[in-house]
Amino acid sequence: MIKRFGSGVVAENGELDRRALRDLIFKDPRSRRDLETILHPLIRADMEQSAELAVGPYVVMAIPLLVEGGPSEGVDRVLVVDVDEAVQLQRVRARDGCTEEQARAILASQASRSLVWLRQTMYC
């Protein structure tokens, strides 16, 4: 992360400065794609390992960007939890402590609600 985005994405305590990284990736689409290239393979590997270790008949995975990434191997069903845009904005702002403009940029980077519903019907 530091190699790609610089030391400005590291907080004084050595942890990732999520706000600084968020500001960067939502202003520069290439930075966002680079972040996804770095993180998505690691996240997918972690999810697959967790699924392999599961002992029950079902595995539930929370995959916020499933639709954007296309079909996933081993995903038999998709449950879409949907709320209207006003609630989405409120939740993003509360979670990230960001402005409405920043929250809208975050939501705009995700698949549209209509695409989610269309793709969801294709998976089931």
Structural account:
There is one protein chain. With 124 residues, the chain is mainly alpha-helical. Helices cover 59% and strands 0% of the residues. The chain has helices at residues 2-5, 18-25, 29-53, 66-69, 85-96, 100-108, 113-123. The mean pLDDT is 83.
Strand portion, in percent?
under 5%
Helix-strand pattern, N to C? HHHHHHH
Distance between the termini: 36 Å
Number of strand segments: 0
Q: How many discrete structural domains?
A: 2
Number of helices: 7
Residue-averaged pLDDT: 83
Detail the poorly predicted runs.
none
The assembly state of the depicted protein chains is single chain
Structural class: mainly alpha
- In helices, the fraction of residues equals 55-70%
Computed Rg: 16 Å
The biggest sheet, with number of strands, parallel, antiparallel or mixed sense and barrel status, is: none
Shape: globular
Q: In a nutshell, what does this entry contain?
A:
The chain has 124 residues and is mostly helical.
Annotate the secondary structure layout:
Layout: H1 2-5, H2 18-25, H3 29-53, H4 66-69, H5 85-96, H6 100-108, H7 113-123
Q: Key terms for this structure?
A:
single chain, 124 residues, mainly alpha, 2 domains, globular
